[in-house]
Amino acid sequence: MNRKVIFVFYMLTVIVLAGSTLVEHVNGTGFAARYIYGAWWFSLLWMLLAVSSLPYILKLLKKDKSKLLLHLSFFIMLAGALLTHLLSTQGVAHLRKGQPVNAYTEQVADDETDTARLPFTIELTDFEISYHPGTKAASDYTTHFTIKDDGAEIPAQVSMNKVFDYAGYRFYQSSYDEDGQGSYVTVKSDRYGTPVTYMGYALLFFSLIWLLISPKGTFRQLLKSPILRKCAVIVFALFPAHHAAAAPSFPQSTADKFGRLYILHNDRICPLQTYAMDFTKKLCGKDAYKGMTAEQVLMGFIFWRKEWDNEKILKVKDGEFKDEFHLGDYVSLNDLFSMGSYRLKAPIEEYYNGNKDAYHKAAAALDEKVNLVMELQNGTPLAIFPYRQKGRTEWYAPNQEYPADIDQADIAYWQGFFSTLYADALSANSAQADEAIKQLSAYQQRNGGNSLPDVYAYKAERLYNALPLATILFMFNLTIGFFAFAFLIYRLMGSRKPEKGEHTIRKGYTVLFFLLLLSFLVLSYTLGLRWMISGNIPMANGYETMLTVAWLTQLLALAGYHKARILIIFGFLLSGFFLLVSHISQMDPAIGQMMPVLNSPLLSVHVSIIMMSYALLSITFICGLTALLLHLAGRIMPDKREAVLQQAEALQVLSRIFLYPAVSTLGIGIFIGAIWANMSWGTYWSWDPKETWALITFMVYAVVLHTHSLPAFKQPFTYHLYITLAFLTILITYFGVNYILGGMHSYA
């Protein structure tokens, strides 16, 4: 009876958490914080779950110490959260230079604030913004202030991810005044809740690791299971491309030289080739067009405006939108103007007034492409002229307003450069254009200073742009994976005995192993290039995390090959799907500078561990999917039912081997993220949609570990069905939050 009560409260909590994120999406964060997460009944629900679980937890005292500590850690975390909720205070102090402050503003309700006093005085001495060299992208915000307490003066400093503690209060960098003479500092006092919560985190980390290394634990017993041995070709396609003639441009050799120049793009200095590729991909969905390189497309729009305004290069989405405006799959800029009026004016106005259905989103996407072309033809994005003054290097475009102290000779050169190239374009004088580009390159080297990227990073970016390795890999991996998977199913369901042809099969798996190893090395090289280019671990956005999950999936498959050869096939399929998602979902943003708050080692560890967990859970998903397909085949062919059952049992063991470390790394990753959040903005848990769904994922997958309490999961079919459906929580956590629910974590 007690187990049923626990299960009811547990699932009710999961349902409430899932529903809360939807309520927040519809009614706003303030509504959810007040009526759900901050409501008395929400705390009561967690308390009822904890109290109902207590008798079961106490039974573990004599049975399994690791499980006891694991469950005890959640009690301690809930106790810490309750103490924080009841006893902590948090607010914001506005500091201005020369103005002592001894109070801060505390938010007590949605639209109500209160003033809380400090037992000491704080005074701002300086505020500074650090920038990435040559750009206006902030790398950090730093507040210097003095604490005055009983005649003593204590110098203090806070910046992003760097806090300051004094007398039970913790200070965080929050915001700043536009004039640079003031700063907003978050002030938090939580003497009891945070230490207790951190104690729970430490116990959780210890017990999860113990769960994996304990000799008597279920995980170690699964590794020794003889059933694994029951888990028991290769073609890939090359396809040519063809293209028709496009509008005029410079020859490829001249365009290539143009692409080697530097430009300030996306808040960093990079090869102009990168901007050209981003521009072309944004317009037509590809980084080349009708046999022309991205640099040629860019130069065509700059110097042959009339011809390229008639070129049908702008890709159009959504069938209803295309039908309404009688548009094809691709349109030209001139197709969108009629008698001097802009045809998209009405749907764009409706879009910005709040109508965000597929029809209006398609209109907005096309309007964005139109604006990109117009901005380029006005010269706005072409910040290719560096100028050093007052110890800083700034990059300027040819048509912007310039500071009064810039040398007029430099301004004349900037404004005349494109006129020179335009004259060369009209006269088809590529040699003279090459010389002008060469002179600008030398000018950039003389004046760029330390804003120019390292020569190795520059070469890495050129190489990365030239080789679409991730795209090649998704086609390669999926092709091999599908053929190998089809052969696996055929062999498992075939009439021949599995022992026949075992030597040939072993050789085939060896070939697959080395092909996956090759794919892994190429993907590692790709990630290494992105790391070198950006200077950050490649996990800053949706595209990069998809690449990382694919990399981790391949690593796990290669590492587990000698235990279960079938993992190689799963490695091809899963990594191929992850790479495919990164390719088709338009998640390939330009490489840029990382937000200051995200530039933290703790965040890198948090994301890495979470991604590892997702990769492990992906393998359990494909194990479950394979088992369900075999089950379906067994129903169609009753004579194979016994073989299907054996394979389902073997896949269950294999799946559980990955499930234990997956749940462990997910739990560790979630709460390392909580520590990072507390270090960054003073709240270790804020019920943001992504962290809420990560907790839901953890709770959903944790259920299936309790095979003794829930014996139904000992049955292979029940287990595999649950595991397959549970993968939906990961899809919502990753894609649903990024593209639908939103929140602080939606960095896609």
From TrEMBL:
- Segments forming domain Cytochrome c assembly protein: 541-745
> Membrane spanning segments where?
5-23, 35-56, 68-87, 198-215, 466-490, 511-533, 539-559, 566-585, 605-632, 653-677, 692-713, 720-741
* GO cellular component terms, A-Z: plasma membrane
Keywords, ordered alphabetically: Cytochrome c-type biogenesis, Membrane, Transmembrane, Transmembrane helix
Q: Molecular function (GO) terms listed?
A: heme binding
Q: Where in the cell is it found?
A: Membrane
Q: Does the keyword NADP apply?
A: no
Domain annotation ResB-like: ranges: 68-184
* One Pfam family matching this protein: ResB
One of its GO biological process terms is: cytochrome complex assembly
Membrane topology summary: Multi-pass membrane protein
Predominant location category = membrane
Read off the InterPro entries from this record.
Cyt_c_assembly (IPR002541), Cyt_c_biogenesis_CcsA/CcmC (IPR045062), ResB-like_domain (IPR007816)
For this entry, the protein name equals Cytochrome c-type biogenesis protein CcmF
Classification from the root reads: Bacteria, Pseudomonadati, Bacteroidota, Bacteroidia, Bacteroidales
